[in-house]
Amino acid sequence: MKNLKILFFLFLAISGYAQNLDFRKAILKSDLIIVSYDFDFDTIRLNDFTNKTYIKINKIDSILKNRLSTIPKNLTARKYLDNEDYYSDLITNEGGCIMKPTEANNWTAYTHIFFIRKNGKEYQSFLVLQGIELEKYRKIAHQIRTISKIEHLKNDKERFEKTVDWFIENGLLPDPDFIKHYKQKSITTDTIQYSDQQYKNALQQFLKGNEELLPLVRDKYFDEIKTYYLQKMQVLIDKDKSDYNDYYDFYKIVSNITNIFNEDYNSGDYILNSALTSDKFNDYEKKNIMEHLLKVVTEWE
What's the whole-number average pLDDT of the chain? Predict the structure, then answer.
């Protein structure tokens, strides 16, 4: 059961990372990204196992991206679902409750964003973000404008560098599709050569909590990374009562900083660290293990 929980948390971490990458791809695939407060959904049942859902945009309140020569006055787009090149509305972890503006709190503005592309004569909506609060909307709108601006750069090398900057600024590592594309253009190899400034920016983002950047900064800034993790370990040790999530976080930190004890799976410390998420020891014994591992990590080079 504990192993299943570990796999579940790993899934969440990987899923969150993938969702942010998919958000970039959703922006790039869109011909039109709009904000609308006046829209309707309509579902047409084709048979007993197939529906088609459409979104009727009664009014466009703001345009965040537009590659279309003209925008229909009465815009209706088919809403794509799972297995139809569809992107989840949790893709940015910004998806909120579905709420019309009239239902929102007086002090909060809720925004609805539609990602649309044109395929032949059909307009297709493959991502809808509904019920987005104002502060989150501003961040999303900034991302859309930034990525769209980079997309229009004509120089491949400049577009590559600016996109790498975007990945780092958002706490992400460049994804395999991106690397393969620019490798085909002979701009990079399987291993990206980052600039000194990009390394510095990556460290800054990591220290803000964007730990997905660990593979990029671990070797170059090992002392800073170790200090960051030691502080987190001490906070977990100092808790009056630890739960499974705390033990898992501690286990993950130790694994990250030691590179899973240099992949020595027979190491006694590796076995102790793994035992934190099991039922082999009680809380008192696990606290002693954590204090021991803190010393191990402190001396780790």
Answer: 86
